[in-house]
Amino acid sequence: MPISGKQIIGEPLIINGRQLSLSRAVRAGDFVFLTGQIPMQDGIPMTSGTIEEQTRACLDAISETLALAGCDLGDVVKSMVWLKSREDFPGFDSVYAEYFPESPPARSGLVSDFLVDIRVEIECVAYKPL
Fold first, then answer.
1. Which of 50, 88, 112, 116 is a Cys-bridge partner for 82, taking CB atoms 3.0 to 4.6 Å apart?
2. pLDDT at position 116
């Protein structure tokens, strides 16, 4: 439903049974902005698992959200990545390359602490003309 020139994509995000005050994704014109995705399993943050498993969980969820907006990973033009530890970068990057094997999007990344005990968060912007 359009609201002030933007369209909210997907249902509200619920983590640990609590609805968050953010949108899963927002379409504004030809761009789709996705909220940062953390690794989730059955509505609960994945606090265990390898960086590879957590990266796959993030990218699979991003793919699902993009599909709700009529997009796919090939439409992603920019991503931002947060890692818990710089030592996780090689494992993260190997999985990321599987999901973006050709013409990968522009990407920024940094090491950061998280609000929950996870190892990775990925945010992205897709471009898909209406």
1. 112
2. 87
Give residue 87's domain range.
Answer: 2-127
Read off the amino acid at residue 81: V
| Core vs surface per residue 94-117: b (16+ CB within 10 A) or e | ebbeebeeeeebeeebeeeeeeee
Q: How, if at all, do strands 6-9 and 25-28 pair?
A: antiparallel
* Residue (of 113, 105, 107, 103) closest to 38 by Cα position: 113
Q: Is the pLDDT of residue 3 over 60?
A: no
pLDDT tens-place string over residues 7-59: 999 888 777 778 888 889 999 999 999 999 999 998 889 999 999 999 999 99
Please count the structural domains in the chain: 1
**The model's pTM:** 0.91
b/e per residue, 54-84, with b = 16+ CB within 10 A? bbbbbbebbeebbeebebebebbeebebbbb
How many Å apart are CA 28 and CA 20, to the nearest integer?
A: 21
